[in-house]
Amino acid sequence: MSEEEKIIELYKDYWDYMIEKNIDGLRNLMSLDYCLYHMTGVKQSIDEFLRGLENGTFHYYSADHDDIEVSIDGNRATMIGKSRVVAAVYGGGKGSWRLQGDFTLRKENGNWKLTSSRASTY
Predict the structure, then answer these.
(1) Domains observed in the chain
(2) Which helix (H) or strand (E) holds 2?
(3) 105: helix, coil or strand?
(4) In Å, what is the CA distance from 59 to each residue of 14, 94, 109?
(5) Most CB atoms closer than 10 Å: which of 25, 46, 64, 75?
(6) Is 122 helix (H, G, I), strand (E, B) or coil?
(7) pTM
(8) CA 13 to CA 68: how far, in whole Å?
(9) What is the 3-state secondary structure (H, E, C) of 39-98?
(10) Which residues, 6 or more positions from 82, have their beta carbon under 8 angstroms from its beta carbon?
């Protein structure tokens, strides 16, 4: 499997784990310094984000992937994933969004780890 294919699989695993609320799986995909920037501008650490997933602040039902672009430069990479996501967040009702995640990644001990993500719509 190429490095690009590994990163694409990581993106797919990310969404599967979000839907499953697989906290350990997600933590394994993320660097210790991972941070998420929500569409609202809110910045969350890995622990804050995973706590929100665990306590129901974020609930994801499905994700269908339209496009995943990867660019690798040595032990660093960027990825833009575009997915149609069904979710209920921050106490709102269940809705469908076309979410774009702009991710940065770093290779740690031979494995790609997400270091940040910035959510927007497309």
Answers:
(1) 3-121 (3.10.450.50)
(2) none
(3) strand
(4) 14, 9, 31
(5) 46
(6) coil
(7) 0.94
(8) 13
(9) CCCCEEEHHHHHHHHHCCCEEEEEEEEEEEEEEEECCEEEEEEEEEEEEEECCCCCEEEE
(10) 65, 66, 67, 68, 98, 99, 100, 122
120 strand-pairing partners? 100
Tokens linked to 93: 């009702």
pLDDT at 92: 85
Q: What is the pLDDT along the chain (122 residues), one digit of tens a residue?
A: 999 999 999 999 999 999 999 999 999 999 999 999 988 888 999 999 999 999 989 999 999 999 999 999 999 999 999 999 999 988 889 999 999 999 999 999 999 999 999 999 99
Determine the 3-state secondary structure of 13 from DSSP. helix
Residues 85, 65: Cα–Cα separation, whole Å: 9
